[in-house]
Amino acid sequence: MPRKWWGLVGIALGVAMIVVDTTIVNVITPAVIEDLGINSSQAQWVQESYAIVFAALLLVFGRVADLAGARRVFVVGVVLFGVTSLLAGLAPSGGVLILARFLQGGAGAMLLPTSLSLLNQAFHGKERGQAYAVWGSTIGVATAIGPVIGGWFAEHASWRWAFGINVPLVVLIFGLVVAFVAPSSRSTGRVDVPGSLLSAAGLGALAFGLVEGRTYGWVTRHGADGGLSPVFVALVAAAILLALFVWRQRRTRHPLMDTRLFRIPSFRNGNVATVIIGLGEFGIVAVLPLWLQFTLGYSSLQAGIALLPLAIGSFVSNGISFGMAGNLSALSFVRLGLALEAVAMACLGAVAAVTAAPWWSITLPMFLYGVGVGFATAQVTNVVLADVPATEAGQGSGIQSTFRQLGSALGIAVLTTVFFSTLRHDVKDALRDGRIPDGRVDGFAAAVTDSAGAAITPLAANPATAGVADAARGAMANGIALVSYLAAGLLLAGLLATLLIPAARPAEPAAV
Question: How far is Cα 145 from Cα 149, in angstroms, rounded to an integer?
Answer without folding.
Answer: 6
